[in-house]
């Protein structure tokens, strides 16, 4: 039961926590990288962002009495965009790390790990990061996987082993294409994204090495916006 001008599903206790600058717009502007299925990807129209994070953003906005405007942005640009005030929230499979907490405020909501995947036929074998030495891996720019692969490459060289050949792409689609076209031996992504890529590959990819380093996903917000209590 709602009264007055409230939209169906509005939670008054949540709505009163929404900062006036956001409430006055009537819209929660959300940025997501729509190449990270099933967490965020394009609908069949090629422009509507759908997936777990888009659904969650719309549900949160509804409780606030707002509409969610979810737009596609490159992953590496979202946190700088939040800092610049371009978006109210980033909902794009952000692993909540200490480094990112220096730039934005997080409200955590999920736990995911990292996973490798390779070609089902003619792929490579790996049990974890320690086996990356001398191998080529494709990742998305700005991700924790990129950081992990680069850090492991340094460890490989320090141990007198071949470095990791790390190729970073603007989106996950580019990384997946590098694997399918033979430009990389391994894809490296968050566990739900890697599993979904394998599922949708029609037998072209397979998971290798299991899931490791599970960590929380967080919805990201500008530190000065005051939005986190309402999102929480």
Sum up the structure in keywords.
8-stranded mixed β-sheet, single chain, 3-stranded antiparallel β-sheet, 232 residues, disordered N terminus, alpha/beta
How many strand units? 11
What share of residues are in beta strands? 25-35%
- Per DSSP, the total helix count is 9
Can you write the helix and strand succession as a string?
HHEEEEHEHEHEEHEHEHEH
Largest sheet: 8 strands, mixed
Mean pLDDT across every amino acid position: 95
N-end to C-end Cα span: 23 Å
Q: Which class do the helix and strand fractions yield?
A: alpha/beta
**Contiguous runs where pLDDT drops below 50 for at least 5 residues:** 1-6
- Form type: elongated
3D structure, described in words:
The protein is α/β, with parallel strands linked by helices. The protein is built from 9 helices and 11 strands. The chain has helices spanning 12-15, 20-23, 52-64, 75-83, 98-101, 144-158, 172-180, 191-199, 228-231; strands spanning 27-32, 35-36, 40-42, 49-50, 67-72, 89-95, 104-119, 136-140, 165-169, 186-190, 205-222. The protein has an 8-stranded mixed sheet, sandwiched between helices. A 3-stranded antiparallel sheet has the order 2-3-4, with helices on one face. The longest helix has 15 residues, at 144-158. It is elongated. The two termini are 23 Å apart.
